[in-house]
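explain this:
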Amino acid sequence: MKSNLSLIPVLLCVLGACSRPSASRDLVPPEIIGLGEDTAPLNCQHFTRGDVIPFAYAFRDDIELGAFNLEIHNNFDHHTHSTEAEDCEEDHDHGEGTAGENPWVFNQDYNIPAGQQNYEARVRIAIPYDVDPGEYHFMIRVTDASGWQQIRSVSIYLE
């Protein structure tokens, strides 16, 4: 009799887990949304070393946002990311496969306050004066509270 009573809490836990509605599970990745005329950076946009890159996008999720990440890396080897809307028609300062002497790498995580389904992100990123000019990729990543991720990449140029 004692062994049957010890199974009751286990059965209650199993039944409780099975009775949760499936609608509470997050199955949709978050969105990255431009802010109209304020959207920055845009694909093929030029920036000056020693100046700043303004970042302005919104994020949206059906349940809850988590965090976002901004990354900038050189594109001196002319690689692509599948999220780019268009190719930029520009002369490249660095030849195919060239690594450059001082390429810029920026990678920063940003928290989104808990409980947010919509968030407008604005960040000003200082561009070091002494980095190599040329084409760079600006990567935007947003993750929701469940771990789903959305990525957008735009090409930018440093002069």
Q: What stands out?
A: Strands lie at 31-34, 45-47, 52-60, 65-74, 106-111, 118-126, 134-144, 149-158. The first helix runs from residue 2 to 18.
